[in-house]
Amino acid sequence: MTGRQDIREANRIQHHMTEPEVAMKRFLESAAQSLVAGVLLVAPLYLAALLLLKSMKSLAGLVRPVARLLPKSFPAETITSLLLVLILCLMVGMLLRTTLGKITQAKLENSLLQKIPGYEVFRGMTKQLAGGSQETEWKPALVEIEDALVPAFIVEELEDGRFTVFVPSVPTPLAGAVYILSAERVYPLNVPFAQAVKVVTRWGSGSHALVNSMQIKRMRPTA
């Protein structure tokens, strides 16, 4: 069965459904999307916190002699372990900025990390937030979806001039939908990436800044 036949069949079934059945179907679809969005937000934070606590616990024995030199009323062991973990993260980050570190990171991403669902989205967003991404990567935009303007991020430009855009869910920008739209329906924004993400996480509050910064000249394929 082709894609168009699937759509026609789905529409036919929906037309024969009662209003309570349609409402229940929409509720279940919305609940499923909310669940996925919540998992994509909570899981990385939970794993990061778990890894941090595990690292601090592993280093507790190493820093205990130093912690004993400080007053007992001060949580020296916990604070010292946390500082040591942060220093280790800083050293790893500095190593990844070297040529050897970039090669190692690329191999690790290609062989393992890119297979993790949502990693590409998370990596692109964190690079933008850190200011280490190219200007054209994950550029904020407003896109035309039906009769509305929707906050989105430009992922890439296709050879035929169309754009692949990611439309994030509210209020979790790590989940959403991907669209391939013509250039006439994509409006790039002159706003920082973090500001566009903030609008999404705040349920659209501050959207006036996105509309005001919308470039009047639409993106068109170059000749």
Topology of this structure?
Blueprint: H1 3-15, H2 19-67, H3 76-96, H4 99-111, H5 119-130, E1 139-145, E2 148-157, E3 163-168, E4 176-181, E5 186-188, H6 193-201, H7 207-212
Antiparallel strand pairs: 1-2, 1-5, 2-3, 3-4
Helix pairs in contact: 2-3
Any overview of this molecule?
With 223 residues, this protein is an alpha+beta fold. The protein folds into two domains: 1-117, no CATH class; 118-223, SH3 type barrels (Roll), CATH 2.30.30.140. It is built from seven helices and five strands; from the N terminus they run H-H-H-H-H-E-E-E-E-E-H-H. It has helices spanning 3-15, 19-67, 76-96, 99-111, 119-130, 193-201, 207-212, and strands at 139-145, 148-157, 163-168, 176-181, 186-188. Strands 4-3-2-1-5 form a five-stranded antiparallel beta sheet, covered by helices on one side. Helix 2 crosses helix 3. The longest helix is centred in the N-terminal third of the chain and has 49 residues, at 19-67.
Structural class: alpha+beta
Question: What is the overall number of helices?
Answer: 7
How many domains? 2
Strand order of the largest sheet: 4-3-2-1-5
In helices, the fraction of residues equals 55-70%
Whole-number mean pLDDT = 75
Instruction: Give the overall shape.
Output: extended
Can you count the beta strands?
5
Tell me the Rg in angstroms. 23 Å
Strand coverage percent = 5-15%
N→C terminal distance: 38 Å
Biggest beta sheet summary: 5 strands, antiparallel
Strand/helix succession:
HHHHHEEEEEHH
Low-confidence runs of at least 5 consecutive residues: 1-7, 217-223
